[in-house]
Structures are given as C-alpha cells and as structure tokens.
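User: Structure please.
Assistant: Input sequence and predicted structure:
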Amino acid sequence: MSEGQTSTGATVLRLLSPEELSRRVMERARGRRGGERAQQPIPIYAGDQPPELSFAQERLWLLDRLDPGNVSYNMPSPAWLRGPLTVAVLAASCSEVARRQGSLRTHFEERDGRPVQRVAPPGPVRLPVVDLSGLPGSAREPTALRLIRIEASRPFDLSLPPLWRTVLVRLRADHHALALTMHHIITDGWSLAVFYGELSRLYGAYLEQRPSPLPELPVQYVDFAVWQKGQIEGEELGRHMAYWRQCLAGAPPALDMPLDYPRPSQPSNRGGTESFTLSALRVEQLEALARSEGVTLFMLLLTLFKVLLSRLSGQRDVVVGAPSAGRSRVETELLIGFFLNPLVLRTDLSGNPTLRQLLMRVKESVLSAYRHQAAPFEKVIAELRPERVLSHSPLFQVQFNMLDQAPIALELAGLEIDLMAVEEVFVKFDLNLYVQRVADGLSLDLAYNRDLFSAARMKELLAQFDLLLRHASEGVERPIDRFSLRTESAVCVLPDPRRDMASGEPLLVHELFRQRAVERPQAPALVDEGESWTYGELADAVDRL
C-alpha cells in the first residue's frame, strides 16, 4: 500500500503491485546505502588516460608483484562435451563473448608507479585443438585430465593479454573436453556463470546462422572501476571505516589451528579437497532450526563452524572471512569481472555461551558486516595495516563460502555437457569451506593447504563438523563447550573417559624394555644396515655400559 496526498491535502492510499513494491524496496535500500548519488547510473568512462584498477584488482595486482605468476589465483572451469561439436562455431561464440566483455580483453601496465588497465580491441579468440584420438581408448581420458591440470597450473603474465585461455581436447569425433582457465583479476565465480550463459546462447544462434540474441551491455568493467573509486570517498567511506576499525581492534593476527606440518615461510599453496553431503532431510531440519531461532541457514552453519574452529584452536576470539558478491548495482549483474569483496566476520565465543546466545552474536556480526560492505577489503587492510607476511593471508586465514549464485549451466545445442568437479590444485587460505545446494541436499567441500594439513586430518575435521550439526538439533540451550567432537573414528582410538584408569604406577620406559627382554630375549630389537640386535643382546650391552 502506498500513501500520498491529493491537491487538497487529503491523504489517499493505493495498492501497489508486487513488481512496484519490489522496485520501491530496492530504491529505499539503495538510498539508505549511499544516498541519492547511488541511484544515478554508472557513467561511461571517457577519459584520455588508461583507467585505474578497481580496489579488488589492485589487491591481486600487488600480490602478483610480490609473487609473480602465483597460480593460486587461476580459476579453471573445464567441461566434458559429448555429441557432434562444430569447433568453428564454438570459437566464434568465444570471440563474441570476448567482444562484448571488455574484461576478457584486459591486461595491466604500470604508469608512474601506479597500475592501469588496458583493454585490447576485439579480435578472434584462439581455440587450439589437441587431438588425442590416435591414443588407445583407455589412455584418452586420463591424458585429457592431465592436460587440463597442466592448463590450470600455467601462470599468467598480467601485462600480456589475454588473461584467460581455452583449449579444446578431442578424444574422438563426438567427445571433447573444454579446458577454460581465467585469472581471478578479470573474473569471479558469478562471472563464470555469465560466461557460460552467454556462450550457450551464442552457440545455439550461430549454429542456426542467426545473429547474436544478446543485447549490448550498458557499461563495461572499466566503467565500474572508475565509478567505484569516485564513490568510496568522504563521509560515506569514513562511516564504514570507523566501523571496521572498532570491529577489528585487537583482533588476533592469526587463527592458531593445530597443524600436521610446520608452516613454511614461503608457501607453495598446494591444495587438496575433502567433501561430504548433507541429505535433504537434514538440511530441512537445519533450516527449521534456523527459522525458529530467527537466523538464516548461513548464520547457523557459520556459528557451528566457528565453534569447531574455537575448540580446535583453543581461541575464543575467532575471525573468519566470507566473500560478498560485490554486485550492488543492476548494471553489474551481467558483467564479467572481479567484483568479489571479502567480509571479515569476528565473533567472541568467551563465557561458554549457549548455542542460542552464540547464534545471536554471529547474527549481529554478520548483519553489521553486510551493512558496511561498501568499504572495499583493500581499504580495510590499508587502514588497519596488519603485518604482511607471505606465510599466511592478512586478517583471516579461514574462509566460509556459502555459494548462493545459480549453478553454472553450459548448454550447447545438440551436446551433452558435464562440468567437471575441479579439485583446488592451489589454495589462497589455510582452510576454505564451500557450502552449496545440490539436488540431494547440501554439498560441503573443504579446500585446504597441503603444506599444513593432511587429508586424514581434514576428513576428521569434516566429520567433527557433521557431528556438531547433528548436536545442534538436540537443543540450542546447551553451552557450546558441552558439544562433543568425539566422532565414531575417534571413539575407536581414544580411551573411554567413563572407565577408571588402571590402578598402580605405570612402568617406566626402561622397565618396559627390561620386561620385554626377559619375556622374549631372542626377538629382534634393532635392525640397522643388515646388523641386528636381539632384546637379550641389547639388555646385556646396556648392563655392561
């Protein structure tokens, strides 16, 4: 319902359609975020000089300067293509996506000590074909997968366009693999969905010799980058930065998780992934619990994940990162580019709160962070100046990523498409928990740094998280320290805490050795380069010494 006034001053009410109501709510929200200026369209950049980078691009450019060719920011998204593929049409479709999307023609230069963007003119996209059809049938798919991994691991030079690659691997006439790899500085997860969506529509049209069905884009990423720099200034930026200064004052520099291997001073960023799936029934139970507590499923899962991190690290002040899409303007929704803006979510778990109390703490921290998400992460780092070390990322080392964008869909006319599940070969954080809806529930994928953790430890960590999720449904009034982490595998190897320990003083090591020497004097005790000592011989040697 809308309230207005007639020329006589009388108040009148009229019903609004759902569409108009939605539009007004969005306008009000934008107005609160940035005032009237935020409602003005993003202008087209018409300057004579090459435009500067967005804040997010600047961060990746600086990281690349510190560690040139770091492949942890490569984003591979390969797919199997089964059916009659017209390679020339696929290449033409890729070329048209690159013509439409300036980010796919962008590279970076340094001018007067500052990085700038250069957008190359449109041109045909190379689609090299590697033909494996001459190999034995059993060798083709493993070879294709090996080639895809090699492509995903090849570094990019940010000064040389293009900053993305496509390679087509032919296994046979009706079976191909498309190896697509982009550098994160020109793309993000949302952008990959945009790329494949445009590619699908263009391939279908070109195959039927129809023109492109896609409307021209109102702005390009460089327009957004210039606009962003002009927006984040003055009182608005000051208000957001004041929040982050207060929120992160005195935050621990790192989450002290128990490691399987010493943290290297120069990390290799080698990654691994462990996964499990929550059934649809359990997801329904968790969603019902979240609704009853007035929180979102994201907040509930994040709360329990922080409980786990706190218990494992022994820290009550837990800082976790969570990516924000960074696309608050409608003009950016169909753009390929790097918009992602990490949010820093800090929670105080001291005082052994109940799960319900902790949910409220996490809810407040999440809502506050999103209210101040207009401050770029790069500005927050520059303001707080955390110690920059190559061994771990600043502000947070663990990320919780609940993927809410539509699943990437590639549909090429006449072809059966299967997007490959890509294990993170290289990682940017110690731990990154991805949560995504799938047909049969929720998929939880834990990407981890293999320099620090073993696969067995990560499997157990996921099992402990699963156990916490089960306990959460049993009662939110339970203090968080009462939640058990003793999984089924742990029960098999840990002593039962309910049983009394054996009476009497335990034997010392040398006493245990002497006991074995008496019981089995001929049993081998030491073997070294072909020479062996029995327990009896070793006991006699010790006695003589």
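The two ends are 97 Å apart (CA to CA).
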